[in-house]
Amino acid sequence: MSPEERGRLAAGAREIGIELSGAQLDLFAGYQALLYAWNERLNLTRVPPREAVARHFLDSLAAARAFDLAAARRLIDVGTGAGLPGIPLKIACPGLHVTLLDATRKKLAFLDEAIVALGLGGIVTVHARAEDACRQPEHRARYDVAVARAVGPLGRLAGWLLPLVRPGGVAVALKSANVDGEVADAAVAIRTAGGRLTGTLRVRIPGEEVERTLVCLAPVTRAPGQRPKVGHRGATGPA
Ligand code: SAM
Question: How distant, in Å, are the alpha carbons of 28, 40, 153 from that of 31?
């Protein structure tokens, strides 16, 4: 990672509200190097290396605008692919336990190697289909935050992400800017999955002209003695 990219990453993260140390910037540089080394033999990303800071790293970090990153303890990234947004969020918040779930084994091989090479702890990969994992006791209602980027339509994601979230937690779908139609189409699926739309948050990715929308969902059930909420920071929209 060039000094210029490093500067853009640090400044962009600060704009999102995340202060990255030199050691954390080194981890991003290491992750970028591994990602593009593996990309030569595995189809991990079509984003050129010079655009990775904005389109992968800052875009991933911007997901934290939808929840309190410091308060979250367990996060699952469903359909993580090359580790996006899970690895950037893990680097930004070392105390966060992160589960990277994907149905494609060869992508998990990359992630397993990256985790070791970067020396990350408190992060695991899971080879599973989301529709199966969301029914398994080791995953069901076990996460403060469930995120997904570029994995499927919102209605399908609602059925996968909401069962993974504990009462008081939040599911966040990273979507392109215009989601009104998709949100309307997903209304029944969200209700059927036992959730509600808590907000849609428009965010501008630092260094990018484009905006994206974070669609925030929450399970409606409330267990007695639940932990304090970690989600819904600044989200707006219908409850
Ligand atoms: N989230 C990453 C990103 O933003 O770069 C990867 C996006 S990629 C377009 C979609 C990923 O979702 C793929 O790695 C694919 O294997 C995974 N995926 C698709 N359907 C899935 C399912 N039902 N269960 C688990 N993973 C799935």
Answer: 5, 15, 28
